[in-house]
Each structure stands twice: as C-alpha cells, then as structure tokens.
Amino acid sequence: MAVVTITRGQYRTFAEIAKTHGCVLTLSTVEEMKCFGEFSFMAIGVVRDAVDSKSGLTEKAAITLARSIDADQFRSASRPEIDWWQLEDHEIFPFLFWHEIGHRVDNFDMFSVVGLKDPEARAACLRHVNTVNEVLADRFAWNKIRPGEPIPLGDTGKRLQDGIAAGLEHLRKHAVHTSTFTRQPLPSGQYRSTPKEMLIEPWKVQYVGTKVADAWRVARR
C-alpha cells in the first residue's frame, strides 16, 4: 500500500493558484471528510494576513484536500469516465487539486438548474448535472497534468459515453456554465488570504509557514 502525502511546497503552490480563482485551500483527512477532496461554495473564515495578530477576516469559498491518500484506494474510485488507474503516484495530488479547481471554473451551476421554470428540462438536467460535472472536473484535471494526451476511458466511461454526451448537450442548452462567472482573485503571498481553518492545529500551521502570528496559533475548536 502506497500512501502519498501532500508536501509543504505543493500546498503553498496550490494555495496560490486557488487564490487566483477567488478561493482558498485547506487540508483535512480522509477520515474526517469521507472523501479525498471537495470544493464548497459555502464561505469559510479567511485571515487577511496571518503574520499580523490584528489582521481582519473575510469569508471565501474553499477547496479542501486530504493530507494523505492511499494511492490504490484513490485509483480504485468509481469514476464516470476517466480511468484513475492511469495516474502515477506523483500525479495524484496535482490531479486532485485541479479536479477541485475544475469544479470551480468548469461546471454547470446547480442553482441555475434548480431554478429552471420548465419542469421537464429541470428534471432532465437534475438527472445529468452531478455526473457531467464530475466528468468535466476530471477532464479539466487530466488536461492540466497530461496536456495533449487522450483521455483514458475506464470500463464505466466506455459504457456511459453516449449518456454523458447527451447529458452534456442538454445542460449546455438549459443551464449556466460557471466559466461565465467573474471572480475576483484574492491577495497573493504565503501568509495572505490564509484560511482560519489552517491555523487551528499545529500540523496545519506547518503547511502555512513559520511566521504565523502567535495569536493565530491558539487552537479555536
């Protein structure tokens, strides 16, 4: 069993990329999350400058990744299209991160689906939106880590090809795509725009850096 763990360098690189998309990056565990990663539009507390003990706070959407992942368990995940077994160990965290960014920038907006006035169109979109959004996020991530390489279909992907294509076409006709949204980038820098969640436990603070103000290191459970 190979377990891959996100490095400090990876966290800091990914955190800066997330800020360019108007969201922040936090870490957790598979046990707590019951998954490997997630993107949530629900705003969390963000410290404007973690070096300053008197810094103000704001609220932003967040991506959360598991700190450590069983590589084979990850690759065994049931996916609607891409065969995750094609991923090398060193590609797992980059793929997972870009997958969650994909949910941010390359998905169909669930609120626009729920708000459709045509009941038949709404019902059809609701049948497809979760699967199609997972497919789009996987494609987005694959193109980031393996640009130009064909998408490797798993057995499920081969079986669902026609259904996914039909669902994608239907959503394009009726739903809003998140690429149309304008998002303000967050201030960049190692200690800028730091999720408050990353300051409540010592192991998380280590990913942020050594200059976090003592006032922010106090556990806030």
Please tag this protein with its features:
globular, two-stranded antiparallel ribbon, 9 helices, four-stranded mixed sheet, alpha+beta, about 220 residues
Tally of strands: 6
How far the N terminus sits from the C terminus, by CA atoms, comes to 33 Å
Helical amount = 40-55%
Low-confidence stretches: none
- Largest sheet report: 4 strands, mixed
Mean pLDDT: 94
Given the C-alpha coordinates, what overall shape results? globular
The proportion of residues in beta strands is 15-25%
Class inferred from helices and paired strands: alpha+beta
Rounded to the nearest angstrom, the radius of gyration is 19 Å
Provide a count of the helices.
9
| Neighbour order of strands in the largest sheet | 2-4-3-6
Order of helices and strands: EHEHEEEHHHHHEHH
Instruction: Give the total of domains.
Output: 1
Question: Describe it for me?
Answer:
With 221 residues, the protein is α+β, with helices and mostly antiparallel strands. The chain has one domain (3-217). The protein has nine helices and six strands. The protein has helices at residues 8-20, 30-33, 71-75, 92-105, 110-114, 119-145, 155-174, 202-208, 214-217; strands spanning 3-5, 23-28, 37-49, 57-66, 68-70, 192-195. The strands form two sheets. A four-stranded mixed sheet has the order 2-4-3-6. Strands 1-5 form a two-stranded antiparallel ribbon. Strand 3 (37-49) and strand 4 (57-66) form a beta hairpin. Helix 6 crosses helix 7 (155-174). The chain is globular, with a radius of gyration of 19 Å.
Short description:
The protein is α+β, with helices and mostly antiparallel strands and 221 residues long.
